[in-house]
């Protein structure tokens, strides 16, 4: 077990493409937590995760192995551009090691530095209890519950949560 | 005063470009209700309003004058694609004539026909009282209030509302 203290979180580069794909494709294919098409092509997935409207990061352990990745972007344009949004994904084999928590803490810090006033998660699948509890533990409030807004491949129609934290 | 009974709502075509621009550009430039950049170029605005991820419509009166326009799209991809989203804009000179109400009713009907289960408005600016009351009157619930999530050009930071209606 590496602790999260050994994680280094840095901006993603072109050379991280394979490592990012290895993390995000299983999550997309599973279709249990993100509103992305399960059949999404790898190129489209990378284009989404590292698009020009966001900054993308990777979390690597002491040996340089990438255990997680996240993006940070403005959640809206115009009059809503002072609220940011993030998406986080952790490598399946790295679950339970504090990677998501470390990435979220890093994103909150970078969001504050960038001048954002708040962070919003638009669509946290309610059955993703680990995520919901983690975000609540990091100070996010559930501001809204979208009834049956997500079709879970195993559980059918389940609620999604809007979560928000003022920075 | 034409009543809303005289409105015809139909899919937008290329020939409606000028009429759509005449409606949406003043709303975008005002920056009071939509999270779009106030400086958005006309081409970008039309590309947004009539993009390939949505269907766009216009409301015209008995003389063929276009009084409003709206779009209908899936609000999310993947497991969220059964919830739709709409945006509506009414010509400044046509306010108070039921155009927005007629467009919303039309969109709800088309959304049901298309198989959507619900309609979600992600970001209704709380100071847009006419809209909030109209959507509430049409059966939308306020599911969440995003604190100070919109920077209004006159009122400063104001709340935005997440509104939702099961179809």
TrEMBL record, chains A, B:
Enzyme superclass (EC): transferase
PANTHER family referenced in this protein's UniProt entry, alphabetically: ACETYLTRANSFERASE, GNAT FAMILY (PTHR43138), N-ACETYLTRANSFERASE ACA1 (PTHR43138:SF1)
Domain N-acetyltransferase: 7-167
Pfam families assigned to the protein according to its UniProt record, in alphabetical order: Acetyltransf_1
Keywords noted in UniProt: Acyltransferase, Transferase
Protein name per its UniProtKB record: GNAT family N-acetyltransferase
Enzyme Commission designation: 2.3.-.-
GO molecular function, one term: acyltransferase activity
Superkingdom per UniProt: Bacteria
Organism: Teichococcus globiformis
Protease recorded as keyword: no
